[in-house]
Amino acid sequence: MEIAYATELVEQSPDAVIFANSEGVITVWNSAAERVFGHSADKAIGQNLDMIIPEQFREAHWKGFDRALGDGVTKYQGQVLPTRAVRADGETIYVELGFAIIKAGGAVVGAVATARDITERFNRDRDMRRKLRELEAAQKA
Length: 141
Prior knowledge:
The longest helix has 22 residues, at 119-140. The protein has 5 helices and 5 strands. It has helices spanning 2-12, 31-37, 41-44, 58-71, 119-140; strands spanning 16-21, 26-29, 80-86, 92-104, 107-117. It has one domain: Beta-Lactamase.
């Protein structure tokens, strides 16, 4: 019964929920992940996480992924990390990611990430910072 509840909790989450096994292969991809990243669950499940990681970040991602799985803990536990991701259509978006390492019987079996699209907020904040710099520069002049 608890498994059914867990499945329903993941599916009903407003945030993308992605589980990747220890090889980085996606085995859980909820409907919010479909909405955020543009890939259907049928397309995403069984694929490598590289499908959502911008190419310039892949090397660093895999180093961190392997280190976290090896240590059995992520340094970002309990935090969200703003970063870029890639949608199915190739668009780069900004997301907040939360991570956790998942263990079964004491052994690490993979990692779960939650993701929320923050592109609109990120762009708005960046524009406000730019305008503030311009105003400060104009005031000094």
